[in-house]
Design goal:
Elements: E1 2-5, E2 11-13, E3 23-27, E4 33-37, H1 38-55, E5 79-81
Parallel strand pairs: 1-3
Antiparallel strand pairs: 2-5, 3-4
Length: about 90
């Protein structure tokens, strides 16, 4: 079993997919906890990554087709927003 803890901003650290059959427990800042399957959490991660890429004008692979303007560009996410009750969805 994998255990993750929600930070004060309402996010968990997740930079990759988990095995779809694994069970992941998330402890929320309010003291509640919830168990997700890897498949559920991977879907939440994929949705958050798609929103991030859309907001930052990146293509589906995370690449910007505009000329580079920053020194250290970031094209992916490391934190995913979660809230109690998401496992039931």
């Amino acid at each position: 079993m994998i255990t993750l803890t929600q930070d004060a901003g309402g996010f968990i650290r997740m930079s990759r997919h988990f095995p779809s059959t694994s069970l992941i427990t998330i402890f929320y800042t309010d003291g509640a906890s919830e168990v997700f399957s890897g498949k559920q959490l991977n879907a939440i991660y994929d949705e958050a990554r798609a929103v991030f890429r859309t907001q930052n004008h990146l293509d589906e692979k995370g690449f910007s087709r505009a000329p580079a303007k920053t020194v250290q560009p970031s094209s992916d996410i490391a934190f995913v927003a979660v809230h109690a009750g998401m496992a039931a969805q």
